[in-house]
Amino acid sequence: MSAPRPITVIARWQAGGGSFETILGLIAELRPRTLAEPGCLGYDVFRHIDSPGELLLVERYRDESALEAHRASEHYQDFVVHRIIPLLASREVDILVPRGGA
Known about the structure:
The protein is of the alpha+beta class. The protein has helices at residues 20-35, 64-72, 74-84; strands at residues 7-15, 40-47, 54-61, 88-96.
């Protein structure tokens, strides 16, 4: 049986017209709830200097099951799915695992 692999999620969000500050407020509420999840290893949010309204989220989870638990959580469904995604002009999400033997 293989050991669980940590998962890193890189999400690039571009706020829709006039919604940037609202999205930042929602993330401020979402972040501590996500960090309290047992499988969450980190949750960092960055603002893009040269692209107004663009955010980069870097999330780290213990393994794939921890990421699945996060996505199924009430706070993810409420904040991200129902409140943030409708405010975004675009959204890209990459899910990464460490390269073995590098």
